[in-house]
Structure formats: C-alpha cells, structure tokens
C-alpha cells in the first residue's frame, strides 16, 4: 500500500482503551488516529462470539457516522463457550461508508475460577484486576497477557485482528 495513502488515512477508534489505541497505532503508524467512546450496543460483558462481534461492528459504525474519508475501527473483547468450557475471544471491525470488514483472533481457555466469577455477572476486567492483584489489566496486558505469562499482550492480540482487517481492505483495493 502506498505510504502517501496511509498518511492521508483518518482513523477513528471506537474506544478510549489504551491497549486498543496502541494496537491501532502499531498497525497504522502513519495514519491520523483519534479515539472516542463508542457504545458497543451489547452487554458490558459479551458472552458469545456473535455478541462480541456485534459489539465491534457497532463501535466501528458509530465512528463513521457523519464522517467522510474515515475508517472506523471497533474492537471488542468477550468470552464464549465451546462445549462447557469458557474461552476468551476478541473481534474487530473496520467500517467505511460502503464496506465492512470483520475479523477475530486468539482464543484461550479461561481458568474455572474466572468462569465462576463471570457466571455470577461480573465483568472480565474487574475479575482480572482482583485475580492478578493489579489495576486496569484491561488497559494493559489484558487477560490474554496474564494467562500467557505475558507472551501475548492485549495490544498484540488486537494488533493481529487489526492486521487481518487491514489486509482484507488492502486486498479489496487491488
């Protein structure tokens, strides 16, 4: 992709979460990037692959409302059952007025003690803060960072999803 096109890109991220912002900056280092709080339109703790995907789509679409020449990016983390086991999941969406791309990334099994807390109605972010004895895990390493001994951070995880989104968009520009 021509570097001039990337420099002229305007991207709005539908979140104020630092990890999500850094992931977009990592994949689009030359673009003009801003962030804004955007409602996911789903539960505070998405509990399925589909709900998590819809949250990312809603955030991305919110970002392009009333905008021109702008990419909207929505990123959403959630959990999903495979059989009777609960897994971490994540989705991203890249929206333009006439195009929408979605992608998902890593999934890892959550420990039973985390699953129990989530089934009580708690959000993963608050559960992880208590579990890891840290503050704002969701803004930093995320659950993925904790449960992979920081081999994969939340920034890495979302960067991978954004690379998939960018790649789809670039492929359609050929």
From TrEMBL:
InterPro entries on file: ITPase-like_fam, NTPase/PRRC1, YjjX_NTPase
GO BP: nucleotide metabolic process
NCBIfam families per UniProt: PRK03114.1 (NF002850)
Taxonomy of the source species: Bacteria, Bacillati, Bacillota, Bacilli, Bacillales
Molecular function via GO: ITPase activity; metal ion binding; nucleotide binding
Alphabetical list of Gene3D superfamilies matching this protein: 3.90.950.10
EC annotation from Swiss-Prot or TrEMBL: 3.6.1.73
Keyword annotations from UniProtKB, A to Z: Hydrolase, Magnesium, Manganese, Metal-binding, Nucleotide metabolism, Nucleotide-binding
PANTHER family documented for this protein: NON-CANONICAL PURINE NTP PHOSPHATASE_PRRC1 DOMAIN-CONTAINING PROTEIN, PTHR34699
Keyword Iron carried by entry: no
Annotated protein name in UniProt: inosine/xanthosine triphosphatase
Pfam families associated with the record: NTPase_I-T (PF01931)
């Amino acid at each position: 992709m021509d570097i001039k096109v990337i420099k002229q890109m305007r991207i709005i991220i539908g979140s104020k979460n630092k990890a999500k912002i850094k992931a977009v900056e990592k994949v689009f280092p030359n673009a003009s990037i801003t962030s804004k709080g955007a409602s996911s339109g789903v539960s505070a703790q998405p509990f399925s692959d589909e709900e998590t995907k819809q949250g990312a789509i809603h955030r991305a679409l919110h970002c392009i409302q009333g905008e021109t020449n702008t990419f909207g990016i929505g990123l959403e983390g959630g959990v999903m059952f495979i059989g009777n086991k609960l897994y971490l999941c994540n989705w991203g969406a890249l929206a333009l007025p006439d195009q929408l791309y979605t992608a998902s990334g890593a999934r890892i099994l959550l420990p039973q003690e985390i699953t129990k807390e989530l089934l009580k109605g708690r959000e993963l972010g608050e559960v992880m803060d208590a579990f890891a004895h840290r503050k704002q895990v969701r803004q930093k390493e995320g659950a993925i960072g904790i449960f992979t001994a920081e081999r994969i951070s939340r920034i890495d995880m979302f960067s991978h999803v954004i690379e998939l989104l960018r790649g789809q968009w670039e492929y359609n520009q050929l």
